[in-house]
């Protein structure tokens, strides 16, 4: 598609494209302006005890926090702990988790129409997520430690009578062995408990390092970016519509392309000024003489009716050209015209007619003399072209004459209209003299 085609598309579909672009922009602008303001509260959590060594590890930490913060049971537990009656599903949709670079810090955010609710829900989620992170990281260690402590307490209770019996019977090997066995169990369990306690301490704890605060300003609406996206979407829809229309109803732009398809010359552009009309008339006369026609029929490619005044102007410019007031001047060298008696003007130039008497004799010399022949107002040659008609006013009795067709093409001509001209030429057997550019043709068809 060249510049001419782009100009034709913009000229023909410019208003449609603007309308299709403006519709979603206006609709989205009204929707965004009437939306209630929203507020977002943020809390920051240390989700890991060590700094991630790669971006992939940091992404895994963020994904873990996101999975916990958007789990329905955790959200329900957080709302119950904070005594909030929010819908858990809506809370999940309004919750966002983002990482802060490759660190172990994670930003937890919740958006709500109420700034107070935004702060309370965010803090409740952060506290519950931290507890769940610790539970996931430590696993069942707290329960194991409790079980070991219970066993140690039971062993200590059982050891007391055994120790008393062994102390009362120091020479009794059975009593001494029972005391040694229970002491060994207590020692082993105490060692296991110390090891489990060290593992729990080494696992670390997640903490909330930045509590949620009440937001004081509403979230930005992002109107400019949304309107830009809406405009691009509307432009895309408009281009699709234009493409479908051009595919189903193809058009060509300008008289030049119509002339190329019809393989005829462009005779000019219709205008009101006499100079342009005279040029059009001259070209039509030359084309008619070359084709040997006596009548020219004007027709618009789109089939619209030609205004009578337009036909009259073209006919007047073609059949009744204005007289040319100029005179034909022939330079004559006086040195080569010995004996010519030519009248001399005050400035030394010969201005009189070159008659027989002057040619037979006479004196008069001078450099730069000019012999001037008077020109007549009308040419004496016979013109074969007699009439210019519009197609709709062509008399049936004149259809037997030698007729030539001149087509007026607008700025945008549909391809089927060009084929219609070819069908007319084939049906009538008329030669096509050329194409005239008529910018008002499409507007006339619309009227």
Q: Which key terms come to mind for this protein?
A:
disordered C terminus, Bacterial polysaccharide co-polymerase-like, 447 residues, 14 helices, Rossmann fold, 4 domains, single chain, alpha/beta, rod-shaped, 4-stranded antiparallel sheet
Task: Write a structural description.
The chain has 14 helices and 13 strands. It has helices spanning 3-33, 55-69, 72-81, 88-93, 115-138, 141-168, 173-203, 223-248, 254-262, 274-291, 308-319, 356-360, 415-428, 441-446, and strands at residues 39-46, 95-99, 105-112, 207-210, 251-253, 266-269, 295-300, 328-331, 370-373, 387-390, 403-409, 412-414, 432-437. The strands form 4 sheets. It has a 5-stranded parallel beta sheet with strand order 6-13-11-7-10, with helices on both faces. The relative contact order is 0.11.
The profile of the biggest β sheet is: 5 strands, parallel
Q: How many β strands by DSSP?
A: 13
CATH architecture grouping of the largest domain: 2-Layer Sandwich
Average pLDDT score: 79
Strand coverage percent: 5-15%
What is the domain tally?
4
Helix and strand layout, with pairings?
Elements: H1 3-33, E1 39-46, H2 55-69, H3 72-81, H4 88-93, E2 95-99, E3 105-112, H5 115-138, H6 141-168, H7 173-203, E4 207-210, H8 223-248, E5 251-253, H9 254-262, E6 266-269, H10 274-291, E7 295-300, H11 308-319, E8 328-331, H12 356-360, E9 370-373, E10 387-390, E11 403-409, E12 412-414, H13 415-428, E13 432-437, H14 441-446
Parallel strand pairs: 6-13, 7-10, 7-11, 11-13
Antiparallel strand pairs: 1-3, 1-4, 2-3, 5-12, 8-9
Helix pairs in contact: 1-8, 3-5, 6-7, 10-11
């Amino acid at each position: 598609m060249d510049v001419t085609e782009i100009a034709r598309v913009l000229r023909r579909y410019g208003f449609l494209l603007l309308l299709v672009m403006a519709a979603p922009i206006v609709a989205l602008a009204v929707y965004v302006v009437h939306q209630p303001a929203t507020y977002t509260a943020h809390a920051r959590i240390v989700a890991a005890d060590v700094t991630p060594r790669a971006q992939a590890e940091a992404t895994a930490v963020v994904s873990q926090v996101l999975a916990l913060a958007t789990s329905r049971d955790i959200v329900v537990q957080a709302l119950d702990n904070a005594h909030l009656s929010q819908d858990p599903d809506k809370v999940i949709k309004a919750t966002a988790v983002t990482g802060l670079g490759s660190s172990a810090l994670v930003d937890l955010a919740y958006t709500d129409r109420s700034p107070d609710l935004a702060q309370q829900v965010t803090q409740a989620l952060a506290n519950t997520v931290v507890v769940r992170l610790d539970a996931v990281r430590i696993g069942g260690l707290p329960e194991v430690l409790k079980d070991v402590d219970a066993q140690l307490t039971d062993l200590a209770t059982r050891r007391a009578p055994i120790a008393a019996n062994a102390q009362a019977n120091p020479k009794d090997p059975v009593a001494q062995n029972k005391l040694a066995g229970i002491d060994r169990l207590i020692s082993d369990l105490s060692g296991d408990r110390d090891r489990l306690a060290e593992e729990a301490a080494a696992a670390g704890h997640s903490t909330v390092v930045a509590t949620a605060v009440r937001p004081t300003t509403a979230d930005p609406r992002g109107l400019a970016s949304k309107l830009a996206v809406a405009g691009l979407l509307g432009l895309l829809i408009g281009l699709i519509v234009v493409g479908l229309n051009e595919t189903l109803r193809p058009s060509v732009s300008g008289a030049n392309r119509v002339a190329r398809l019809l393989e005829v010359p462009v005779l000019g552009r219709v205008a009101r000024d006499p100079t342009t009309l005279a040029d059009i008339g001259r070209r039509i006369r030359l084309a008619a003489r070359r084709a040997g026609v006596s009548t020219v029929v004007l027709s618009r490619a789109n089939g619209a009716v030609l205004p009578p005044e337009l036909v009259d102007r073209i006919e007047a410019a073609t059949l009744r050209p204005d007289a040319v007031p100029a005179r034909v001047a022939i330079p004559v060298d006086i040195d080569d015209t010995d004996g010519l008696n030519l009248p001399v003007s005050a400035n030394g130039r010969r201005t009189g007619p070159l008659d027989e008497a002057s040619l037979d004799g006479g004196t008069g010399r001078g450099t730069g003399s000019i012999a001037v022949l008077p020109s007549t107002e009308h040419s004496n040659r016979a013109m074969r072209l007699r009439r210019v008609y519009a197609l709709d006013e062509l008399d049936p009795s004149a259809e037997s004459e030698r007729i030539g067709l001149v087509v007026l093409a607008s700025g945008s001509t549909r391809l089927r209209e060009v084929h219609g001209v070819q069908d007319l030429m084939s049906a009538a057997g008329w030669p096509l003299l050329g194409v005239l550019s008529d910018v008002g043709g499409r507007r006339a068809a619309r009227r």
